[in-house]
Design brief:
Elements lengths: L2 H11 L4 E7 L4 E5 L5 E14 L2 E6 L3 E4 L5 E16 L6
Length: about 90
């Protein structure tokens, strides 16, 4: 089973009602923002740097990050772009 399939199954088992795959272009910038509900991201290809709760982290394929509801964060996608599996508690929140 490939990584994205395992990530999707994990998020569904954890009770996320909205789970899907998406991708971002190299160098995409996400200015500081927040979500109404919890959002979880699994990186399946590529990388990005995220600033969350005063900490910056570089994430790559195989990494997971849980973003609590109403927690501001920003991100910059790496030079190779990024593919993600996203779990949302509220549809369209990511």
């Amino acid at each position: 089973m490939e990584l994205s399939e395992r990530c999707i199954q994990t998020l569904e088992k954890e009770g996320f009602p909205f789970v899907y795959e998406t991708q971002d272009a190299p160098g995409a910038i996400y200015e500081e923002h927040k979500h109404e509900g919890k959002v979880t991201l699994f990186i399946t290809e590529g990388s990005f740097e995220i600033s969350l709760s005063g900490e910056s982290k570089n994430l790559a394929a195989g990494d997971r990050i849980d973003i609590p509801r109403e927690t501001p964060y920003s991100a910059i996608v790496g030079s190779q772009g990024c593919q993600l599996v996203v779990g949302e508690m509220i549809d369209g929140d990511f």
